[in-house]
Amino acid sequence: MSGKIYEAKHLVKYYECDTNKRMTLPMLVNIMIHASGEQSHLLGVGDDVVNEMGLSWVILQYEMNFNRVPEFAEEVTITTQALSYNKLFCYREFKVYGANGEECVTAKTTFALIDREKRKMARIPEEIVAPYEVEFNKKLVRTTKPEKVGAEATSTEYRVRFLDIDRNQHVNNSKYFDWALDTLDYEFLTSHDLDYVNIKFEKEVHYGNMITSSVSVIELEDGRVSTAHKITTGETVNCELSIIWK
Q: What is the pLDDT of residues 101-140, one digit of tens each?
């Protein structure tokens, strides 16, 4: 049985939107994760409690489906619920509803705990997950892998800045979306809407690193467009991301 459902309201601000007056993908991810953080805090297992144990939550993968993207000045409702967990992974679902109650976005995420000193994955303590009232399932959830970047890829380089780093001393998850989307031009981004997003994080990126953001584009038979993205530092693959646009 899935765990407790938490609900939060959010008014979409102008600085959270793009030139089309639609909420950007990084900001959408940020408000979802903020909602899960609020739930954890209210259940007494917020970041402060986890940090005292020498641990931190990290996100390994998002898989998102879009009916539409929330718009400027719209009050949206975010719901989040832990679905299941095993000794190493926690699975959580998010939903975002528009002002009229329609379901705009759904997202499935995979979380893990890392030992902050060793920078390695840690076993999930029972006392951390018990307040969510979610069931233990020893089986791993099989997730869809992002599409691979093709041979005709183009690339852009970026330097990791101080403001890209979060409290875990590595690049905030939302920044990877910035780097990926920036490889697509203005005309494309203003004429296409998000339909599906799948991002998988592999290795941490740190302050001062030079990263390469690569993209390849494929037109699908149904008229949609698929873009495959890869973030690398040298020969290391840090993140892979695929998006279907309509």
A: 999 999 999 999 999 888 889 999 999 999 999 999 988 8
CA distances from 236 to 14, 35, 156, 175, 214 (A): 36, 32, 16, 18, 13
Q: Which amino acid is at 38?
A: E
Q: Are 195 and 64 in contact (CB under 8 A)?
A: no
Q: Confirm if 39 and 90 have CB atoms less than 8 A apart.
A: no
Q: Quick one: CA dihedral 41, 84, 94, 103, positive or negative?
A: negative
Helix 25-42 to helix 173-181 angle (10° resolution) is 170
Closest CA to 175 of 96, 89, 70, 59: 59
Q: What are the C-alpha distances in Å from 185 to residues 3, 23, 96, 190, 239?
A: 41, 18, 27, 9, 21
Residue with tokens 């592999």: 202
> If you ran DSSP here, which 8-state letter would residue 211 be given?
E
* 8-53 pLDDT per residue, tens: 999 999 999 999 999 999 999 999 999 999 999 999 999 999 999 9
Report all structural domains of the chain as residue ranges with CATH numbers, in order of start: 5-132 (3.10.129.10), 154-245 (3.10.129.10)
Burial class (CB in 10 A: 0-12, 13-18, 19+), 11: exposed
Contact 19, 188 (CB under 8 A): no
